[in-house]
Amino acid sequence: MSDPLERLRDLQRADLPVHGGRTLAYVYDSGDAEVDRVAREAVAAYAASNALDPTAFPSLLQMENELVGFACDLLDAPDGAVGTVTSGGTESILLAVQGARDSRPDVLRPRMVLPATAHAAFHKAAHYFGVEAVVVPVGPDFRADATATADAIDDDTVLVVASAPSYAHGVVDPVTDIAAAAAARGVRCHVDACIGGWVLPYAARLGRAVPAWTFAVEGVTSISVDTHKYAYAPKGTSLLLHRDAGLRRPQFFASAAWPGYTMLNATTQSTRSGGPIAGTWAVVQHIGDGGYLALAEQVLAAVDAIVTCVEREPALGLVVTPDSTLVTLATDDTLDPFTLTDELVSRGWYVQPQLSFEGSGPTIHLSVSAGTLAHVDELATALGESVAAAQAAGPVEVDHGVVAFIEALDPTALTDSDFDGLLAASGLVSASAEGDLELPTRMAEVNAMLDVASPAMREALLVAFLDRLQRPVRTS
After folding, report:
1. Helices (DSSP H) in 75-120: which residue ranges?
2. Residue 474 pLDDT > 90, yes or no?
3. How would you class 186 by CB atoms within 10 Å of its CB: exposed for 0-12, middle for 13-18, buried for 19 or more?
4. What is the pLDDT of residues 208-224, one digit of tens each?
């Protein structure tokens, strides 16, 4: 019989590395092997524990309350503030929207006002919970327009949203003005600090200029902050904090409408593995406030160094000066961003392409970690080599006939055969000799084709792509 752990190690060889500071999306690396050891041992110790019932596993309740207390101190929360550990930023956002909706049963058609740069999880919440997303523009600096936000609030608005920072551009919205506009209308204001919540307070302590965004801002009623990002905790935990317990109460769900135990949930989940909670608690205890200050200093130094690297490359530029740990790059006409992405990946640096949106061209996104600082010189070399290689290769061109074909399609009426043809044309999947799907090793042509498609067509193509990938592997 084969060793399943050996097979796991073999399977994992195809994955992106989660350590070494070179994966600049999806994972966050402290650069400290001891942090990883503490997290793994704590997760393993609690892998079979269940946070569903706090009376059965009171240690998990204690850990959760201590994590919330640490975050309350970090985010200037007043006495009486409360919070919940969730599975990630999306669940925190979903609960913020659901709680806001359910706090206003008098509103038959609830709406929420959010900037165009708000995380897609708010649109997911709108889809799930029947809350209309009223999207307002951002300024040339990619920050939310506070005046447009205020003008969009009406009697049916149950929530107003701001980001600290926005994911795509890494800048903090004018939370003070947005929260004031919401408070003037008696509306909740949620700050999505999933990315910045565990690093911006330390950036301010280090003397960085950070716009006000915490509970110190009057009118902010809830904040989401991901511990599996810059708290460097294992996947997947996040925190949703509320200014007071009354604001959180609509988030809770209870049901005695069946013959089993009375269901009582603080999140969208019932069963919650104790592993991520214990792993997060152990990491936060291990690193501590002073350790997070040092890690923030390291990651911000890495950001500064990367900005300097970019400034040395004439074909590259910053989309906007970063407020935190997210760096967004633009390219000039001599440099194709999708080819540049492939060249960086081929040199061991994973960066994330972002497609064109509302008149802005494609960009390249970097989520910088503290673990990246030790490797910035290597990144500078890889960046220079990648720019030269991408310029030599030239831009990726999408055949005009393919463009016309895509533009003529209705994404809501595509058949399975249409999907299969588009997937094959896009290069998203190909069939091996054994009939298995094979993922492309270079993505420039795929991204170029997606870039010319409408947002609705991109969604349809990627849904089809996911559907084709997630098919059963039978062993009998």
Report:
1. 89-102
2. no
3. exposed
4. 999 999 999 999 999 99
Residue 119 lies in a domain: yes
pLDDT at 399 over 70: yes
Domain boundary among 285, 304, 337: 285
DSSP structure string for 148-192: HHHHH--TTEEEEEEESS-TTT-----HHHHHHHHHHTT-EEEEE
Q: Which helix (H) or strand (E) holds 462?
A: helix 455-469
Q: How confident is the model at residue 433 (pLDDT cuts 50, 70, 90)?
A: very low
Which pLDDT band holds residue 450 (cuts at 50, 70, 90)? Answer: confident
Sign, CA torsion 10/15/17/18: negative
* Phi, psi at 136, each rounded to 5°: -110, 155
Choose the final residue of a domain: 218, 253, 285.
Answer: 285
For residue 431, the model assigns a pLDDT of 53
> Which domain covers residue 425, as residue numbers?
400-469
Q: What is the CATH number of the domain that holds 184?
A: 3.40.640.10
Number of domains in the chain: 2
Mean pLDDT of 81-97: 98
Query: Is there a contact between 191 and 115 (Cβ–Cβ < 8 Å)?
Result: no
State residue 118's pLDDT score: 98
**Best CA proximity match to 61, nearest among 85, 81, 96:** 85
Residue 307 lies in a domain: no
Do 269 and 415 belong together in one domain? no
Four-residue CA torsion sign, 363, 318, 369, 296: negative
